[in-house]
Amino acid sequence: MTTATAEKPRTVKPPVVKEQPLFIGGKFVDSSANKTFPAINPATDETICQVAEADATDNDLAVKAARKALESGPWKKTDAADRGRMLYNLADLTEQHAEELAVLESYNCGKTITDARGDLQGVVRTLRYYAGWADKIEGRTVPVRGNFLSYTLRQPVGVVGQIIPWNFPLLMLAWKWGPALACGNTVVMKLAEQTPLTGMRMAELALEAGFPNGVVNVLNGYGETTGAAIVAHPGIDKIAFTGHFETAKIIQKSAANSLKRCTFELGGKSPNVIFADCDMEQAVAGAFHAIYFHGGQCCTAGSRLFVEDRIRKEFTQRLADKAKKRKLGDPLDATTEQGPQVSQEQMDKILGYVERGQKQGAKLLAGGKRHGAKGFFVEPTIFDDVKDDMAIATDEIFGPVVSVLPFKGIDEVIERANNTYYGLAAAIWTKDIDKAHTFAREVKAGTVWVNCYHVVDTTTPFGGFKMSGQGRENGEAVLEHYTELKTVTINLG
Ligand code: NAI
Ligand code: MG
Q1: Which SS3 state, helix, strand or coil, does residue 422 take?
Q2: What is the Cα Rg of the chain in Å?
Q3: Cα-to-centroid distance, 225 and ligand 2 (Å)
Q4: Cα separation, 194 vs 203, whole angstroms
Q5: Which residues are catalytic?
Q6: Residue whose CA lies nearest to ligand 1 atom number 11
Q7: Cα(94)–Cα(268) distance, rounded to whole angstroms?
């Protein structure tokens, strides 16, 4: 599918990509209606290849294959340790093909090759972590009244529908396949329509890793059609979704018809709080990374930057100087610091917010424009003098746009940080241990960082308060979402 690159030159060559099939029941197939849609290179707006578009019929075939694998195939008889071994195989194969996958990810998603290589390390680590869990998922014996023996079994939920976004295609795949397969479920996954390539390559590797036919099925297509078909299908037991909360609302309503279990990871408008007693150098670099990592296309992006008023001038000046120097360009060039946004739609959304910010009276300190005339690049943008109720301070922009919100004290900033319907992440920069722990306790967010940002590990629970999500991914916490707990009671006479 792509050319392998062993060494790491400054600029890698674009991969050669074939037309993309669907992966159903262990076979690569065309869509039943023979429909396709284009995969786009966001750095150039050119078509990479055509991709098979799954409809409800294809989804039905995938669900039947997944159900068969779950209930009568070899998967059902596979020992837990052997499920783990297959996941270890997949991790090894991913590691062997890491450079090839990183190039493909960068090419299709627009993330820099450096970031894509970093993601691949996370993918491998996640698969290994859950490989290790496969034979450690245990029930308990429970003391009960009377002469009975009661114990619990943790069993797979069943056929799991997994719908992922385009910002971290491979990492989101690993976060979802890892625990689902460790727990013995089977999977029907839909990749994001913007990034249909790397997940299909992972399907090939899953086959090579020894997963029986039907355990993993991978579909491509749009949300309103392919995604909706997965959610509505009565043969699917659970939905795991990452994306926008408006999409999650649609999913939850449709899933209600068969009371499917749902877990959601839904983004945020995360407060990043800078106190005057911070290490300024470290905090400027941290605030920069918090918002501009992957062009702001991160669910945890530090997009509400609260800066203590007495250092605001110096802090924002330093941030603006850095922003103006950031190197935008070809994501396959290892010296590039920021690639394009993923799509025209996302670029237009971001530029729309920039316009609203200016109209509502915020002060533009840096950026604000599209970069270049080709591809979907947006300049790193800073707004100062932002009021809490401006659209740029309330809405998830999902781009390289940060709102600076001045504050004076800890109580005030905690209240304002929590004044949002989101609650995914939050960070504080201070040398004062009292402030750090008070903030960590009081802020309503699933992840809190002290003097760091975007430190996400496969071993630590990840998810959101409020409208940032439901349930947790990563760590041990996710396992309860991929298992059903069964109580068995025996009469001992
Ligand atoms: P989205 O939520 O529409 O799409 C995410 C995934 O859900 C894609 O695979 C899509 O095809 C699927 N989907 C869309 N509508 C569906 C439906 N009715 N039923 C089932 N599946 C459906 O997000 P989109 O449109 O790509 O981006 C819009 C905004 O969402 C972004 O600007 C950003 O604010 C947010 N977002 C948050 C992400 C996160 O990491 N939490 C990731 C991607 C987007
Ligand atoms: Mg959408």
Answers
A1: coil
A2: 23
A3: 12
A4: 18
A5: 265, 299
A6: 223
A7: 30
In terms of Cβ atoms closer than 10 Å to its own Cβ (0-12, 13-18, 19+), residue 236 is buried
- Ligand 1 centroid to Cα of residue 242, in Å, is 7
CA angle 332, 377, 383 (to 5 degrees): 130
Q: Give the binding-site residues of ligand 1, using a 6 Å CB cut-off.
A: 163-167, 190, 192-193, 222-224, 227-228, 231, 242-244, 247, 250-251, 265-267, 299, 346, 349, 396, 398
Cα separation, 45 vs 370, in Å, equals 14
- Ligand 1 atom nearest 222 alpha carbon: 11
Cα–chain center distance at 147: 49
Q: Which of 55, 163, 294, 378 to mutate for ligand 1's pocket (most ligand atoms within 8 Å of CB)?
A: 163
Alpha carbon distance 461, 265 (integer Å): 12
Mutational pocket test of ligand 1: of 164, 170, 244, 456, the residue with most ligand atoms within 8 Å of the beta carbon: 244
Query: Whose alpha carbon is nearest atom 26 of ligand 1?
Result: 165
Taking only the tens of pLDDT, the chain with its 493 residues reads: 444 445 566 889 999 999 999 999 999 999 999 999 999 999 999 999 999 999 999 999 999 999 999 999 899 999 999 999 999 999 999 999 999 999 999 999 999 999 999 999 999 999 999 999 999 999 999 999 999 999 999 999 999 999 999 999 999 999 999 999 999 999 999 999 999 999 999 999 999 999 999 999 999 999 999 999 999 999 999 999 999 999 999 999 999 999 999 999 999 999 999 999 999 999 999 999 999 999 999 999 999 999 999 999 999 999 999 999 999 999 999 999 999 999 999 999 999 999 999 999 999 999 999 999 999 999 999 999 999 999 999 999 999 999 999 999 999 999 999 999 999 999 999 999 999 999 999 999 999 999 999 999 999 999 999 999 999 999 999 999 999 999 999 999 9
- Which one-letter amino acid corresponds to residue 225? T
Query: Where does residue 394 rank: exposed (0-12), middle (13-18), buried (19+ CB within 10 A)?
Result: middle
Q: Which listed ligand is nearest to 346 at the C-alpha?
A: 1
478 alpha carbon to ligand 2 midpoint, in Å? 25
Please give the distance, rounded to the nearest whole angstrom, from the Cα atom of residue 281 to the centre of ligand 1: 35
Tell which atom from ligand 1 comes closest to the C-alpha of 166: 43
CA-proximal residue: ligand 1, atom 20 (nearest): 227
Return the closest-CA partner of residue 290 out of 90, 481, 424, 89.
Answer: 424
Contact (CB, 8 A) for 337 and 350: no
CA distance 126 to 105: 17
Neighbours of 422 (CB within 10 A): 28
